[in-house]
Each structure stands twice: as C-alpha cells, then as structure tokens.
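Hi support team,

I'm opening this ticket because the web form for multi-chain structure prediction keeps timing out on my end. I have pasted the exact lines I submitted so you can reproduce it. The total is 820 residues across two entries, so I didn't expect it to be a heavy job. Is there a limit I'm missing, or should I split the entries? Thanks in advance, R.K.
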Amino acid sequence: MSPQQRRSGLGTNQEAVRRHNLGTLLRHVHGAGQISRAELTSLMGLNRSTIAALVGELETLGISERATPVGGVRQGAGRPSAGVAIAAEGPFVIAVDLGVDRAVVARIGLGGRILQRAQAPVHSDGEAWQVGASVAALIRRVVADAPAAAPLVGIGISVPGLVRRSDGLIRLAPNLEWHDVSFGGIVLAALGLDVPVQLANDADLGALAEHIRGAGVGVDDLIYVSGNVGVGAGVIAGGHRLEGAGGYAGEIGHLRFNPEGRPCHCGNRGCWETEVGAHAIAEAIHCPADKVAQLDEVLDGFAQPSRELRETGTALGHGLASIVNTFNPRTVVLGGYFRSLYRLVGAEISAGLADRALPAPLESVTLAMPGLGSDSPLLGAAEIALEPLFVDPVAALGSALVDVRGRLAG
Amino acid sequence: MSPQQRRSGLGTNQEAVRRHNLGTLLRHVHGAGQISRAELTSLMGLNRSTIAALVGELETLGISERATPVGGVRQGAGRPSAGVAIAAEGPFVIAVDLGVDRAVVARIGLGGRILQRAQAPVHSDGEAWQVGASVAALIRRVVADAPAAAPLVGIGISVPGLVRRSDGLIRLAPNLEWHDVSFGGIVLAALGLDVPVQLANDADLGALAEHIRGAGVGVDDLIYVSGNVGVGAGVIAGGHRLEGAGGYAGEIGHLRFNPEGRPCHCGNRGCWETEVGAHAIAEAIHCPADKVAQLDEVLDGFAQPSRELRETGTALGHGLASIVNTFNPRTVVLGGYFRSLYRLVGAEISAGLADRALPAPLESVTLAMPGLGSDSPLLGAAEIALEPLFVDPVAALGSALVDVRGRLAG
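Hello R.K., no limit was hit. The queue was backed up. Here is the completed structure from your submission:
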C-alpha cells in the first residue's frame, strides 16, 4: 500500500495500514510460534514503539500473550526484548483431512499447534451427506475441551480431488465417486453453524504446510507429490501457490506415461497414476483391494522390496523426471504412501529420476520426506482456515464464533 | 513498502517511495503507449498533484512528453486531462531473438515500439563467438539511426535453450550445440560496450510479451507453447512468471510421451519433442533437413494437411492435455511453427486436447494464436531489458549509455 494520502481520507488509509501490519505481525508470530519484539522489529522494518503498539493490540484481542524471553535475546546492551507468544485460549480453527477411507479432524491453534484430534472411517461408497455427518460428529469431539472464550475462526477441509477455487465446490473426488459436491455446506448444515469454510485439494494443502513449517521452509520452488490412492501435486513456484485458472492445477497423476498401458478412471490409457497409483501398487504386491487405502501401512510391513516394487520405484522416478523438467523445483516432497515407498525403493526412485531428467534442473533438486509426516494436508487445511486472521485480525475475529462447544451442545 | 518511518530516516524512505512510484507510473505508460493523467490517477490511487509531479519528472528525464488528449477524455466537467506519451528520443533497448537458423535484432522503445530491425542467418554449427560477432554487427545496424541523445538502457537476448537465471549463462542450447556459453559477455566484447545484458529462454519471453501486450493481456494463467525446432513452454501462473529454482522451468518438450518412441537428443526415448518437434514433423512431411528451421514457412505452403500432419496435430493435442492437467491455464498460446500447424490441423489439435484433458481444467481453457505473431520472444527480450526502468527510472538512466551510435562508430 502506498503511503500517500488517499482521496478517501488519511484516517481510513491509516486504519487499513494498521490492520495490515497487525495481520503481518501475527503471521510472523504464527510462523515462529514464539518470537521476540526485537525480531519483529527487524523482520517488519517498523520502529519499536509501533511494534509495541501492535503487540499490545494483539494482547487486547486475546490472540497473543507476553512470554518470558528464553535465553539471551537482547537488544544491544539494553533489557532483554519481551517475547510474544500465542495465547492459550486464543483463536483456533477446525481442520479436516478427508481421506478415501477415513477422515481426520483436528482443533488447531496459531503456530500450527494440534490441540485435539479425532478420526473415523469413511466408506468410499458413502453418500456425501453421510460423510458430512461423520465429519460433523468428529468436529463435536475435537471442540469438547475447547475453552469457552476461544473463538472459532473457520473450518478448512482437505479434499482428495479437484476443488473449484471460486466457491470450494468439489468438482471431482474420483476415489469417493463424488461429482460437484458442495461438501462445505453439507458439514455446516450437519453442525447447524455458520462459520467461514474453505476447501482445497490435499496435495495443494500438503505443499502449503510443508512450505510454512515442514521440509520446505525457505524453499520458494517446492513440489509436494502426494500418493493418496490417486496421485497429485501441490506446487509452490517462486514462493506462490500454483493454483491455475480454476484451482485445478497439479493433476500430474494424469500425465501421459505409457500410451499402451492400463485404462485410467479418467477415461484415458496409461496415465502415470495407472503405474504408481495405489491400485497399481496393490496389484503388483498382491495387496487385497480393501487394504488399498492403507497402502502406506502395508508397505511399512515389507522388510525387503520385491522386484515389482523396484519397478514401481523406477516408474516413480521416471515420472518425477517429467515433473522436474517442467517445474525445475528445488525440493520434491514425497507425501502419502510415497513416503513408505521411498524407504523401500529410494535408490530406484532416485536412479529413475537421474536417468531421465535434464542435467540443469536435476543438479539442484532434492527429494525429501514430509517434515510434518502424514499431517501435511491436515495442517495445510488449518492454514487456509487461519488465513483471514493474517489479512485483517480484527475483521476475522468479528466473524468468528465464541463458545462453540456450548453452541454445538445446545 | 510500509509507510512507517524507517529507522534509516524518513527522507531516504520518501525518496525510495517516490522512485518506486515513478517506475510504476512509467510501467503504466509503457503498457498503454499513451495514457491520460486522469487514468494514471485512477490506476495508481494517488492524488492529482502527486501524479502531476511524477509526470513532470518523467518529462525532465526525457522519458515521456506531453500528448494532446485524443477524443473526450475529461475529468468531470473540467478541462480535458493532459496526456502522457512516450518521448520520441527517449530511452531504448536492443532486443535479440537468437534462433537456430537466424538472429533477429531490433531497437525497441518504451511501449514495445520496434524502431529499427535487422536480421541475418546463423549457422547452427557456428561457434558462439562467430554468432556473437554476427549479432554485434546487427546491433550496429539497428542503432545507425538512433538519436544521439537517446540512452541505451540495456540488451535483452532470447535464447533457444536453458538459461541460468542467476547470471544468464546458456547451460544448453541443443540445436546450436552450445553448452555453458556466456553469450551476453561475448556480444558485449564484440561491441566493445559495457551495458546491462539480460538473457532468458525464448518460450519464457514469448509468454511474458504475450501477457503484457499480446493474446494474454489480463490473463493471469497463461502458457506459451513454442515450436522452435525444439519444444518448450513459458508459463505465467497467477500473474507471475514460472521460472523454477534455476530458471529452467517449462521444458515440456521432454515430458515422457511414448516410451517406445524415437530417441531424443536428451538421451531419453519418446519425449514429446520426438513426436511434435520440427525434426519429427519434417520427417513426416518429407521436408529436407536444411529447411527444418523454416518449418513454419514450409507448413504455410500446404493447402491441405496430409494424414501425417493430422496425426501430428492429434499428438500435439494429447501433449497439450498433459499440460492443461498440470497447469490449469486459461489460455494456451501456440507459438513458432505451431501457429502454422494450427492453421492446417487445428481441429485435430483441439480434438486431441478435448479427448485427453480432465473435464474441469478443460472447460475454461482456450487455444490462441500469438497476438504478436512471430515477434513474441523478441518483444519479451525487450521487456527484460526495459525492466530496470520500471524498478527505478533514475538509477536505470544513470547506468544507461548515450550516443551509442557514436561510440560504436568510434
């Protein structure tokens, strides 16, 4: 925002700048978990009295609280700089990781702290309203111990499918067999609440969370490749989320891979997903169909890779080469069951990649495991629900709900 | 930049903000070619007197001049708003489009105006210093009529290959058989000049130019797919250039397409380029090898597509489907010889895309021809050379050269 006086009046402009700065300061607190005022002064390029005023406002809003400085964080020879910590009874969000076989729901506070979590099976042939009712029941469980004064900012939902950015409509969740499902509305109706709800693709949210507090902190060109029955990617490019025109970017499971290959559920033949997707791997290792959604656990039971798994590793590496040639990422994070696959056939994956990628993009890329384990999409869902707090904390708290436990019990 | 007073002092901060605003205003003038003060006031959210002061400074710097308002651009009932136009003897850049068979060089002013152009053949087995000498000779020709007072801001070079972003090193230009060539330095040495020089990949620059003043104006998710002997893409995602960690993003010619296919120069087999690259098409239509680099002209001579060309069109569509699934673009611009191919087999290209892309990203994508014809990479090269003027016009003019014609003649 430019500092000149707008024709709309200096007062309004100053207020907008102040709220923007308040949100930016909160984003730093959220990223660090706890931070000193001296660090905030340095990060934001504002003077000490401005920082002190903003911190005071966050305390008044109940978002942050004073922390005793740890160790020797000092400003020159002066007093130790006071710390800013996340308030124990501060705002929180509900994050939902909707999987093909189970839903994980968590109450999550600023700093990405998982305060309470619950999960339940999902039947892949279930209707959306049935799944919505299960998710609503899990939400009731995770708010059971929430402090009455803590405000619920919103709900974020990670979806194994294509989500329209403009309104969160699930256009396609192939392994749930959902088409054009307004799942956010279904969950709110089941709860009888009206709070902001955000939905996004699971791999996109995995990339976001890994970028903010996982394996990709400080990495501006990052790809999170998710093996979650289907195969997809979330892409951070130049520090920005790659979303595409409608929010559908990253459907790399449907890159052409083997035109003579197996039929894909998308109607084509030989998509990459038909070689490295969970169904293909399950078939290769004779895993029963009802265990496909727990492929990571099945793979973790292997002591040695079979020939078929080594071939799958090579195919994963070959496909990653196409992705490295296309995006030139610094880091490729292998999420979902690809984590377990990497433990078994990491050498084949790396060799397949090295064999097929162009030398220039290959030389600077690293394969990495998720820093957040299997929670990346869940924590990413929390991030999109928290986002309004970082744009304008005052407005976001204004539309937040207090005493959610009481309201849901009533 | 935040409006608060920095610890470094209000004066310095104000000067930085003023230069930033001056550059932003110039970017608007550059984009529009000619623009009224009223439009600038509205676009920049600054008041009339601030805009008037900035416009006055651009005039003093010799960058812009007063224009008589065209038609009835009026502010309310008052006087017609004075216009801002690009100065006839204002700053310019040299843009170089290095092709596999020829180099095109132009003197280009603000507003993307091509003021003078020249071209010469390039021998694909030529050494880099020979090509550099040819390019230097072309540069001497295009500055022959440059006004002595007009400053040269810099040189931008479009390269058919992988360019390292950090220093402009050409890592690989496969069809020139160049590896790790510092072509910018070679051209400057041949000229005996020291001016800023920027290099980037031709498809990346095509995307940039089409986004600024071609088929992609106002389109934030755009892919320029370039058929230029090799096949590559430039990607604009969410309004930002997709560059990747090293600057190598967009090498979609090396997407795996047909694992049983022809060997590719990259060492793999069946890359997309082996099916839709110029050599593959030339072979299919029995075009002599020495005409491959002019494939667009050869294709323009066809009245009817052969069966082979129709198959190529289908393969182009199938590959575009992978790209649409990966990036979810709003517009795909077909550059280079793909323009000529589209005229012949547009139906097959569109059908191949529709047959293989996922419905959600397919529904909002449009195939388009370049708005700038075959000049997109050339105009993109001008953009990267002009860029310092939009960051800080005062500093950019400070490092510009005047009387380039005289210096090169001396």
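A quick check on our side: Chain A touches chain B through 62 residues (CB under 8 Å). Let us know if the file doesn't open in your viewer.
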